Every structure is written in structure tokens, then in C-alpha cells.
Amino acid sequence: MTVLASALDTGGPDYAAHRAAMLDKLAALDAEHAKALAGGGEKYTARHKKRGKLLARERIELLVDPDSPFLELSPLAAWGSDYTVGASLVTGIGVVEGVECLITANDPTVRGGASNPWTLKKALRANEIAYANRLPVISLVESGGADLPSQKEIFIPGGALFRDLTRLSAAGIPTVAVVFGNSTAGGAYVPGMSDHAVMIRERSKVFLGGPPLVKMATGEESDDESLGGAEMHARTSGLADHYAVDEADAIRQARRIVARLNHRKAHPDPAFAEPPEYDPEELLGIVPGDLKTPFDPREVIARIVDGSDFDEFKPLYGTSLTTGWARLHGYPVGILANAQGVLFSAESQKAAQFIQLANQRDIPLVFLHNTTGYMVGREYEQGGIIKHGAMMINAVSNSKVPHLSVLMGASYGAGHYGMCGRAYDPRFLFAWPSAKSAVMGPQQLAGVLSIVARASAAAKGQPYDDEADAGLRALVEAQIESESLPMFLSGRLYDDGVIDPRDTRTVLGLCLSAIHTAPVEGARGGFGVFRM
């Protein structure tokens, strides 16, 4: 056994300060998550329940297996926008009849479950996760369709939702739609394009155009039931495959559909996973409040991997990047974790080799971010930092094994790319409340703008206003700081959620289990040209 030794002083002042700072951030995060849980607010929630209907998360709770976890994804979608936090849609991974499924549920307490631009982005991300990991999709539908005032941002890209359902089906990934209320206009294609459709007596309303639209378009008088009710679709149109008497019956039938799918994981679940040697509670005190202060990522690794057992790769070379092999909830993983923040040429070459090894062995990669980017300066440019950084980014880009990313601290510049940021298609990406991500740090970015402005004034022979410069720098720093924070980035779906550090092992374990529903196969070549 190669158990990591911990040097974390849990009784020291630094640990206490780091823990206090993290708890403050978690309290702020909890307040934002509460907004998503509140949906459309007390008034609309009460009205929905008065109609005898379950809330979106209550439907999910009945759907998933008792006492099984539900990994909610992107709960802060639309944060900082004009739309309700959560984007009127709940998405996540849950176990139904022993099968891991990607579940989506419209929140009808938010403008009747209508889809806004952030709803669309969130739904498309969910479909992407389902496709990559071969997870059956269960759609719990109750939506009035597109939020019409924002139709210009929804209509054209929104067609991808229906395309995705057909592609999932074509790939042999089952899709199930359970209609709890309205599923109108474009939304009618969700049950229409799903493999299985469940509708509820006197509740489901599925039509391309409701009675008012039909009246305007054709002059025909009609009612909801004859036009698109569950009984009509079950008896006449054939759109409904299953007819339920109420919501509980619909959920029961959805569970039976999944039980009969004969959907199998490509890889069996591990039989046993040894817990870490160290208390995950201690993860709260590792990351400093000031990200300029380095921390040892081995302290994090020791608290998330099985038995705290970690075989380090090239421990004496490129020491600003820690790489090595471990198991996490029984699954083999390769880990890349930034130690001192900056990536030099040695770290870049080390990472590229390690990524290739993981691909040869079909082992998923976990990226733990705390990087300010690749090193700059004359010595490093002459030493080939560009070609070596490109080598690392090339390896990440063309790696075929699944990638999981966790932003613990800084994730700036091209270092964010080399460590498999969102643009590099990690299967899942999560952030801690301590994380920050941008093109560079606020002070550095403001300083660069100041230097450029000063040089421009000098070139024109004009005096430079130092007072205005100070004001501009302060303004830019404040803007970049606010746009670097995890809630801002999560609101734009640049991650799959901001998580409590103590939940990191559980979240990664759930993701690894989902990933292994699909085959895990690495690249055996095809990395392109590595500059030497």
C-alpha cells in the first residue's frame, strides 16, 4: 500500500481560517440553492399543490429507488440573469429499478414550466451527458412550451432537443416521457419522439396547437380532451403507450418500463471500495481564502481516494503538477492535480505522457484544478513553454477516456484548457465554492489594461491620467472578480454544479458509476503532431 501521509495541522490557525472562509462560502451557496428549490415561489407552489399535483422534485423522489442518491446537475442555471434560478428545469442522475438514468423534470411553478434560453442550455447539457454515458432518459413533462417573449433565443437552437431524443433512440439509449400536464406546441414532440410515453387521465394535454390556436387557424371548435387528452391519445391517436389514472400511477408505470428495458452497464460495479484514511470533513480547511497561497493537492487526494492509496507518477519531475494512479469508489482513475499553481514545461510534458498512459490502460482521468496558467517570461518562452503547453492541450483534446474535472481553487488562462475545462468536453465538471476561473486574475488583467493604456498615451505624446487609471483598475478588478466566481460561472452552465468539498468523493463516485454504463476505451494513437 502507498498510503499518502498527511501533514495537515487541523489544530492550527491556518486550518481554522481556511475552514471558516469555506463555511462562509458554503452558507452563501446554500442561500442560492434555496432559490432554486423555491421554484416559482410560495404563491405558485401552493396553487400547484392545491390542484393535487406533485412538485418536480417530489416526482423525482417517487421515481428513483428508495434511499438511493439523486445527483442534481446545474441547480444554479440562470443565476445572475433575468430568469429564475434553476431555469424552470430540474436535471440529474438517479437510479430507477437499479438502472442509472438521466432524469429531467419541468418545474411548472415557474411560468408554467415554460422554457427560456437557460432552460434550453440546461436541457441540451443533460442530453449530452445521457448520450456520452449511455444513460436512459426519463422526461417528466409539464410545460407550456417556449417562453414566448424570449422565442428568438429559443426557437432555432431549440430544435436540437428533439434531434437529441431521436439520436439517443437511434444509439440504443432508451427514452421515456411521462406527461403530467401541458406538453404543447414544440413540447408535444417530447412524448412524440420518446420510445415510451405515459399519459395521465384528465391531466395530460398533448397537442401541437391548443383550442385557441386551432380556432384561429382553422375556425374549428374543440376542447382540451378531444384535441390532446390522455384518453384520446391512448384510444384514438396511439401516441400514449401507457394510460395512468393519476401521478403516482404514472410514476409506477415509468418504473416498470425501466425495469423491462434490459439495459445493462458495459462495466460491472466494483464489489468493494475502501474509505479514505482521513476524514473528508477536513477538506474544508485545505484551500486558503487567498488563492495566491499555494496548498498541497495530495491533502485533497488523500481524502477522496480509496484507502488514501495513491501511486505517484514522476514525483520528482515537474513538481507543480501531481500525477498518479488510485481507485475511487472501486473504479481505477488517473489523477492530475495542480500543486503550486503555475505550469512549466516539465509539468506540461509530464501531463502529456501521463494522459497517453491512461489512454493505453483505458483509465478515466480526474483533473483537480488550482492553476494560474502556463509560465510566462523570456526564459520560459525560450525554453519552449508554448510548444510544451500545446503538447499538454493536444493530449487532453485527443484523449478518449472519460475526464472528470473539479475546480478547487484558481483555474486561469490556458491552464484551464490544459486541465480539461468546459471547452474540452469533460464528462462532468464541478466547482468548489473556493474556485475562480477567468482569462487571468483580476489584478493581472487590470494591470495589463493599465500598461497598454499608458503605452498608448505615451505613443501619442499625451499625458496619462493616473487618477483615472486607478479608478479604471478598481472597476475592472471588481468586474473580473465577480465574473470569476463559481456561482456566476455555474449560472452560465460552465460547470455541472458547485459542490460542498466534503461531497467530492461521493459526487465523483456517482459520476464514475454513470460513466461506466458506457464502454471506457482510450485512444491508441491519433494524438496529432507533438512538437518536440
Automatic annotation (TrEMBL):
Q: Where is the CoA carboxyltransferase N-terminal domain?
A: 22-273
Q: Which spans are transmembrane here?
A: none
- Name of the protein described by the UniProt record: Acetyl-CoA carboxylase carboxyltransferase component
Task: Enumerate the Gene3D superfamilies for this protein.
Answer: 2-enoyl-CoA Hydratase, Chain A, domain 1 (3.90.226.10)
Q: Which UniProt keywords apply?
A: Transferase
GO terms for MF: ligase activity; transferase activity
Ranges of residues in domain CoA carboxyltransferase C-terminal: 275-532
- Report if keyword Transferase is assigned: yes
Q: Which InterPro entries match?
A: AcCoA_carboxyl_beta, ClpP/crotonase-like_dom_sf, COA_CT_C, COA_CT_N, MCCB/AccD1-like
Return the PROSITE patterns for the record. Answer: COA_CT_CTER, COA_CT_NTER
